[in-house]
Amino acid sequence: MLNSEFLSPTIAITQYKGSPAMVSFKNSIDKMDSTVTAVKVDVKDKQGEIASWGKNNDYPQQVIKESKKNGSVSSGIRFLRKAHYGNGLVLLRNEVSDAGKKDTKVVPLTALPEINAFFRKSQMKRFWKETIADLEWFSIAFPEYILSENFTKINRVKRQKAAWCRFEMMNEENGLVEHVYISEKFGKGSAVDITSKFVEKIPLIDSYWSADEVREYCKINKITKFIRPIFYPLLDEAYYPESEWHAILKSGWLDVANSVPALKKAMFEKQMTIKFLIEIDEQYYQKIYAEEWAKMKVEERKKIRQDLIDSINTGLVGNENAGKSIQSMMYTDSTGKQVSALKITAIDDKLKDGIYLPEASAANSEILVAIGVDATLVGGAGIPGGALGAGSGSDKREAFLILQALYKTNRETTLEVFEFIQDYNSWDETIIPGLEDTILTTLDKNPTGMQKATA
Prior knowledge:
This protein is an alpha+beta fold.
């Protein structure tokens, strides 16, 4: 389990001394290497380092670049994002019914003026969707909290793009990771001057601290904004989580899936579309034109040959010529054997057999398994352009219900943001955040085929 000290600073009384266990993730594909290494950067007050996200500090950019080439990845991640968000955030309160049973009721935002004002100021609908996108792509998100001048309230929260964020290397003097650097230039292939106007340096706060600890730390250190990352459970990573579905990048299945369209395109562009091979023996012309053939000029012979080929093509090509017969001359060769002076051979079309499509189907299946989306939910996930994996309505409904049931832990990670702000700002503690689902059902149970539920 990751020690929280490796992700953010800790108050003096709980400081950790030592160095983080740096974990190397070796990859057979160099460009997708997620190895964590140190990258030196110039900082005004000292020589600092950031933890490189990948061998060339471009792992997120490479993941996005390669994944966007593939329809199964794009559709699968899009489906996860939408399933994660559901119908959006709702606020609930547990009450007791007249019968003495728990009665959960939705509390409208308009009934909570302070929370409603915060949501509008921070554009929370957009914030949730953007944060969920980071979590589903990279298993980590970087919400930035902006405090009031007296440090008593969180005035706003906004999302910093995960792909643009890099952790500072642990400070060996106190054992803390103290900052996050943010720049859209990370991963663009050139060195980044950390002191430039294109890079922002923001204090990092431990995700395991309570709101009271964070408030006290910010007050002491005069911090008015900070990042408090949220992330899916880590295994042995020291800095950046490695999403489980990224296995398709390491195993090569994504390369297989992306290679098939490129191969098919090259075949269509470069393969000659020849239907028939027509072979005409020279004796054909000698028998037809007799002594005149030897007297003809070269250009005359060429024209006769071309006219014959054109005539044969006219008889072979087109639907109206289906079933027609073609006359061919026979003659006796020097051995006394009867042979045809004209031979027509149909050339086999390799593209008609769907070459490489089985490999594409296997690759797409592996991709969706890694992402965790049942093929029935994205339709046609077998062979690109085909109908494999479409599934029945019941298959889709059950697969969707299972996916929603498994999303509880992911949503708990997302809702950590609300719960932290709720504690920090002393919002009504009886308010419970949730994400509303649409539960698909059958028409005999509900005329609309769906009902609402909150997870």
